[in-house]
Amino acid sequence: MVFTATAGDSPSKPTTPDTGTRFRTGASGLFRDYMTGDQYKSDTEVVAGYSLAFAKTVEIAAGDGKDAWVFDIDETLLSNLPYYAVHGFGSETFDENSWDAWVDLAEAPAIPASLKLYKEIKELGFTIFLLTGRTESERNVTEKNLLFAGYSSWDRLILRGPSDGGTPAIVYKSEKRMEVEAEGYRIHGSSGDQWSDLLGHAVAKRSFKLPNPMYYIA
Hints:
Residues 1-21 are annotated as: Disordered. The chain is an alpha/beta fold. It has a single domain, classed as HAD superfamily/HAD-like (Rossmann fold). It contains eight helices and six strands; from the N terminus they run βααβαααβαβαβαβ. It has helices spanning 28-36, 38-55, 81-85, 96-105, 112-124, 139-149, 169-182, 195-198; strands at 2-4, 67-71, 127-135, 156-160, 186-192, 206-209. A six-stranded parallel beta sheet has the order 1-6-5-2-3-4, sandwiched between helices. The longest helix has 18 residues, at 38-55.
């Protein structure tokens, strides 16, 4: 398994067991400059480039449909920068109510490099799984937002159900990948902005981490 990491990210396993815990990271000015500047755009393009280069080496089984790529959604496919721009770029304590109100708007834009990669991965013949920490109650607005941002034709959107409540992100995502593999799928690639998107069990052959200094989910 290979990871594409970014400066400032720690490759160690998350240790905090709280579900979806988002830690205050401070230094909002620094994060604002990075997230709204050319460096973030460049870094996401670099990660997408590595991802596509690997994807092109995979021999897709003709007629099989079992060669899979797993994408996280928030800060991987969709950018929530408009939300964090008015919430300190991660320096404020996470507020679930304001976050839910933002999600309900279904207006998060695509990360350009990720949208391009997504379309190229689809064209190569991969089966695409979207694995997110969002809840089942947010399915409709999530699908609406993905379509609004330019994403389409994913094969399965996996969200947290009632039985997943209280499960740490790294455990929840591992369990869902294990279920996917149990159906006979081969997970070649995985893209996410959190180590909990990528580590654990049933990990992809190659995992690619996008930069996100604004928050950390264990």
